[in-house]
Automatic annotation (TrEMBL):
Subunit (UniProt): Homodimer.
Domain Aminotransferase class I/classII large: 97-459
EC number: 2.6.1.5
Keyword Transport: no
Recorded catalytic activity of this chain's protein: L-tyrosine + 2-oxoglutarate = 3-(4-hydroxyphenyl)pyruvate + L-glutamate
Top-level EC class: transferase
One GO MF term: L-tyrosine-2-oxoglutarate transaminase activity
Stored CDD domains: AAT_like
Originating organism: Seriola lalandi dorsalis
Pathway(s): Amino-acid degradation; L-phenylalanine degradation; acetoacetate and fumarate from L-phenylalanine: step 2/6
Source species taxonomy: Eukaryota, Metazoa, Chordata, Craniata, Vertebrata
Record protein name field: Tyrosine aminotransferase
Annotated Gene3D superfamilies: Aspartate Aminotransferase, domain 1, Type I PLP-dependent aspartate aminotransferase-like (Major domain)
Post-translational modification N6-(pyridoxal phosphate)lysine, affected residues: 305
Record's function text: Transaminase involved in tyrosine breakdown. Converts tyrosine to p-hydroxyphenylpyruvate.
Length: 479
């Protein structure tokens, strides 16, 4: 009989505090408080098997048909770039080869290879066979120390414990938002700005407030507008410097003004610094942390852009908290969040020290020189086209161009303009509506130089075909 009892279960009457009074088991009366009500969700009748497992006795209603729905998080996840681009009618002119100035990937055309030292570091990591297993969720200690050593400065010192390695800068941004914000909170995001911030935040139930950048001031922040958006539920201020999509680089003085606003309202900063050091000669780009005396900062970066390897997916968070405002809780929160997935590729982590220490300065210089040259070509050419207003960048890989829509009555908006540019000239620029900034478009300046020249020639031809003077301008000419 005992051998058959292992598979039987018996009724136990329960209340919220456990089992009380008499309980019948195989015809015998038992008593005691062996089951805690909290473990079985309060009052009710439950089965207790001989081995102690719990099963509800009341049969639940069976589903009559399949009905599997996506989660609210999935439904609330939207990439604005994909939403706009996927809706465009992209039909290039068959007589002209396509020139895509829309993709923020410097490797697309093959003209910007990474440094030989970067490749050698990867080869050495693979050949060592030391990095084929799991790494700690925050990254190998040696690799985190390499990042700390590379970026540490007297104004913003770093140790390995201040660095978390991530699967690209995108995961770094995801972790930073996740650790700082709760559903119902709001974050402040630049406009125009990188669309991922909103994609991540909205999917988590976090409200996004857009603060304006000013094209007439080389895309500086409208500080008065930004400050007016802060309230008691503002949990994070995102600063992108250098900027995607604008290519702007904030001055030291402007960064200090931003920090004063954050300090005044006790709002931490998420500094997206993936393009740090990708600035043109004569321009400096100090990190936010190096200028902060009290504002805690999570700085997000990675290998993708400066080392021209976006597909290697190696990013990091630098935790700058000299006044211990974040304290242990934010650090522990980040560690917990990294445990949801096991972070960055271990082979790239193994190569990281060699990449950071051995990449030649000439590689950095040549990349910047190329980006500056292409930016100047593009800016100088488009500046002479009636109806277009390019803004000269100071870094990163992008240039924004304003469209005076009054001069182009054939088009409803920037999406219509760029769509027709593809149809007629096979040049694809990204409409800035994707960055919630209508009547501009973004150009990526990583294409080969001759391709950039050809693209500008085609854009000129397109604009000349569709440009119309304003009626007032026509009257002025008649007089």
């Amino acid at each position: 009989m005992s051998s058959r009892m292992d598979n039987k279960s018996y009724l136990v009457q329960m209340n919220g505090n456990g089992v009380h009074g008499k309980t019948t088991l195989n015809g015998k009366t038992l008593s005691g408080t062996g089951v805690n009500g909290k473990g079985v969700h309060g009052n009710g009748i439950h089965h207790v098997s001989v081995n102690g497992s719990l099963y509800p006795t009341k049969a639940k209603s069976r589903r009559q048909r399949w009905e599997v729905k996506p989660s609210e998080m999935a439904n609330n996840t939207l990439n604005p770039i994909r939403a706009i681009v996927d809706g465009m009618k992209i039909t290039p002119n068959p007589d002209k080869p396509m020139i895509a100035l829309s993709i923020g990937d410097p490797t697309v055309f093959g003209n910007l290879p990474t440094d030989d030292a970067v490749l050698q570091a990867m080869k050495d990591a693979i050949d060592s066979q030391k990095y084929n297993g799991y790494a700690p969720s925050v990254g190998y200690l040696k690799s985190r120390q390499a990042v700390a050593n590379f970026y540490s400065c007297p104004e913003a010192p770093l140790e390995a414990e201040d660095v978390i390695l991530t699967s690209g800068c995108s995961q770094a941004i995801d972790l930073a938002i996740s650790v700082l914000c709760n559903p119902g909170d709001n974050i402040l995001v630049p406009c125009p700005g990188f669309s991922l911030y909103k994609t991540l935040a909205v999917s988590m139930g976090i409200k996004v407030k857009l603060y304006n950048l000013l094209p007439e001031k080389s895309w500086e922040i409208d500080l008065q507008h930004m400050e007016s958006l802060i309230d008691e539920r503002t949990s994070c201020l995102i600063i992108t410097n250098p900027s995607n999509p604008c290519g702007s680089v904030f001055s030291k003085e402007h960064l200090q003004k931003i920090l004063k606003v954050a300090s005044r309202h006790c709002v931490p900063i998420l500094a997206d610094e993936i393009y740090t050091d990708m600035v043109f000669p004569g321009c400096s780009c100090p990190s936010m942390a190096s200028l902060s005396s009290d504002v805690p900062i999570l700085s997000c970066g990675g290998l993708a852009k400066r080392w021209l390897v976006p597909g290697w997916r190696l990013g990091w968070i630098q935790i700058h908290d000299r006044n211990d405002i974040f304290g242990s809780q934010i650090r522990q929160g980040l560690v917990k969040l990294t445990q949801r997935i096991l972070g960055a590729c271990t082979i790239v982590q193994g190569a990281l020290e060699g990449i950071l220490n051995n990449t030649s300065q000439s590689f950095y210089n040549n990349t910047i020189s190329f980006l500056k040259s292409n930016s100047e070509i593009c800016f100088n050419e488009l500046s002479t086209i009636p109806g277009l207003n390019p803004v000269m960048p100071s870094g990163a890989m992008y240039l924004m161009v304003g469209i005076d829509m009054d001069h182009f009555p054939n088009f409803k908006n920037d999406v219509d303009f760029t769509e027709r540019l593809v149809t007629e000239q096979s040049v694809f620029c990204l409409p800035a509506s994707a960055f919630e900034y209508p009547n501009f478009f973004r150009i990526v300046v990583t294409v080969p130089g001759e391709m950039m020249v050809e693209a500008c020639v085609r854009i000129r031809e397109f604009c000349q075909c569709h440009y119309r003077p304003r009626s007032r301008d026509s009257n002025d000419l008649d007089q």
